[in-house]
Amino acid sequence: MLQQDPHAVVDVVLQGGVIAYPTEAVYGLGCDPDNDSAIEKLLELKQRPWQKGLILVASDFSQLKPYIDESQLSAERLQRAFDKWPGPFTFIMPIKPNLSPLLCGQFNSLAVRVSNHPDVQALCQALGKPIVSTSANLTGQEPAMTAAEVILQFDGKIDALVTGELGSELKPSTIIDAISGKILR
Hints:
185 residues; alpha/beta; 6 helices; globular
């Protein structure tokens, strides 16, 4: 199902579907972060080991609070993230207890981003929560840069495709450890 409007795919996501959508630099694959079956489907489609963990993107920081343990971060460390958000910066933050290992992988942390991409913003606002975000490609392949490239790799395998423009970033988001401040990518 091709869709230009991110609002049109909300029901698909909430019913456990996997979608593709444009982000700051590449097309992403996403699903409901609270639905383990949807996450398993996404990991299987991408052929990604669950141990690696995933990224959550949100329209604002409040959407990330149910997933991260901000009590483990000083006000200064949180401010580092706030100074870069919304934008193409992903921060590794401590997780709340009982977070699905499908999201955090083998780690006790989670990669999170407040996106400045209008389609991601609209999608997360319509969902009322963040969405899983991983590049739209089979593991080891180049990320999809167009809707046509998404269709080439995932036709008949994803439940919806939001078509739109990519952001102006030339590479995937910078990843920063929120506790140490170290740039990881």
